[in-house]
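Minutes, project check-in
Item: structure for the 663-residue chain
Input as provided by the requester:
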Amino acid sequence: MIRSILIANRGEIARRIIRTCRRLGIRTIAVFSDADRHAPFVREADGSVHIGPAPARDSYLRIDKIIEAALQSRADAIHPGYGFLSENSGFASACEEAGLVFIGPPADVIAAMGSKIEAKRLARRADVPTIPGFDGDDGRDSTLIAAGKEVGFPLLIKASAGGGGKGMRIVEDADTMARDIEAARREALAAFGSDRLLLERLIRDARHVEVQVAADHHGNVVHLFERDCSVQRNNQKILEEAPAPNLADDIRARLLADSVRLAKAIGYCNLGTMEFLLDGATGEHFFLEMNTRLQVEHPVTEMITGLDLVELQIRIASGEMLPFRQADLRINGHAIEARLTAERPEAGYLPATGRIIAWREPSAIRIDSAVETRSEVTVHYDSMIAKVIAHGRTRDEARHGLLSALDEMVVLGIATNRAFLESIVDDEPFASGRSRTRSLADCFPGGWTRPSLPPKRAEDIAAALWCWTELEQRTSTTPTPWSSLHGFRLLGSAGRPAVREVPVEIEGEQRAAQITISGDALTPVADEAGPIRIRREENLLRFAWEGGAEQGIAVVDGNQVWVRIGAVEYSAAIRNHTRSRSETAAGGSDAILAPMPGIVAEVKVRPGQPIRAGEVLIVLESMKLFLPVTAPRDGEIATVHTASGQTVPAGMLLVALAPDTGE
């Protein structure tokens, strides 16, 4: 049995592996970058090794540093988790050459299945159906454009070397194909080190179903049933469940059989996942790719089988036989997983960064998380911060358990998709088990809208919470009746309630809220809801209107207030001054601002350069996503305020256009 494992990963999957190793009595070593120095997984491992700066290319993707860390810490094996180097055949080979056990399949199998092009060829040889398309990319865009016209539109451009939606573009017609190929190549090269692409026919009415397989070094291969991963945004999964709902028995049988047959044909070993697309119109199923690693969604399989898949990986890598046969495996109930991400679904899923001020996990449910209170979420890594996994005797029981958990979960300080997940899980397509890969576009054709309060109510709540916190701080340090009223304007004679005018800014709009303070009651002026009662619960503030049912939670951190009332979540800034005219003007059409925090991947323009509306000016990278920043109109570049490699906050001025003279 392996005695010590270095985990070549971070975040929630590192913590997940540590939990199993601790139960098995296996020593764990974490590797960490500058950004993760204080992360929970580093503290929870038995040992840790610093491997470099925050950018993944300088730390988690450095094979030499990770091998050196493993040898230095006397590890027997390396577990790659998922992402980063988990499907890098060169990394698997380097582990073997260094005398380390790689907890995953052999390097040659990773190489073969890591290329979508080669994987599809192997699938066809094993008589497993694949989507019609083109896989002869020779590096010339003209070849792909010509092939695209033969495949027909709409079609899908995909990166050959990876997944997760990176390097993937839907092409509706030939007019945009050249631009889409350029963007897909750039994204694929940055994410996977290869810009090779393939084309596939686009299946509109599609389900994404995958099969978990397990294979040992003794020729035994089994499936661990299927998962449905159809609910996706930007071609990335956000909800997964097992088993797949409303799946015909004959289709399920074919998927499971095809998966085992293909795994045997390629000589697979360890855990892997066969991914398929099901055409809802024809009933056909097509092999997409194989993930030669543990999947993000592996917990739902664990919940319905009772197996620990990380333990299974370790035992297979140690040379043990599978401890069961196919006939021994049974499905117990239903499980659903939701990916909690730091992003703004209402703004095109733009990544969100910052510090988590309050984090509380729901009780009586499985949470695989990467963070805790005071954790920093940076631009350098994936946006997923936790997985919420519900299990029930039936699918409906699991779904309601997930809804309850999402409602109970507290995460304040950064924007997340928590309320968005609730909307999806409660919506009809998912509730009935009939989701498709395009369900989100159908459910929210104009985009999802974040629930909100009337502006005045939102401002009044934030102002009252901030006033209460300020009073609490002053009372604790200077407990006199006079010092506690410092900064307030008294109304009438002594003993009358005090009024505080508070400048509050929400979503760029600033107004002055007036709060009347009388004892422990704070009442917004001209608000019919009446006094707000506030109490502290550790680092959270709980508040409610006197005599009313409406209540919520909040945190105040400096001049920032984060509020949640049911599905409504928002942040407000308490300003000491009104923004200047120049600050306000920065949002005009002549100023191109960063739409999200990120790293400048490419600057494509220079001062004096003429540009056309829609032309790409800057490419931003954040959380493994690339976003082109385009020109809003025809014109000329006046100034460029950034450079490649620079980290920029949301709202920073990137490029200024010369004034439009109208000539």
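Outcome recorded: The domain at 132-201 is CATH 3.30.1490.20 (Dna Ligase; domain 1).
No further action items on this chain.
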